[in-house]
Amino acid sequence: QCAGCPDPPSFPTRRSSDLLFLAAGVIVSCTLADRFGATAMLRWGFVGCVASGLLMGTMLGSASLWVVFAWLALSLFAMGFAYGPLGGWLPSLFDAGVRYTGVSITFNLGGILGGALAPIAAQALAARGGLGLVGAYLVAAGVLSLGGLALLKRR
Prior knowledge:
Elements: H1 11-36, H2 38-60, H3 65-83, H4 86-89, H5 99-129, H6 131-153
């Protein structure tokens, strides 16, 4: 801290401002999904995940608060594109007779597996190879998601 410099914002303040980018991604992607389709917006979200993974090591490893903020903003905006149209897209995968069960099981299993296993895997990868390896994990997740989306589109 330098003499006369303002105190940096607290972590909760920075975290809250990052989350505005997630909200913006959800709003923008849902608005565009009405015009171009949910599949297209999900695709952009998964491409954003790949980009986020490619930039992760460099940007999060920098000593600059603004570079870290930029990475978080980009990543959360892309997450909004992947998450926003999901609620309307998932039901379209199932026939009406099993739609509620299918969406419920799909969404909750995905949340449990992704929400529980991803941080454990990321921690293990970071301990073994640093942020670049965690970024590669994000790239792999984005590529697999794009592949799954392409397979479902052909159905």
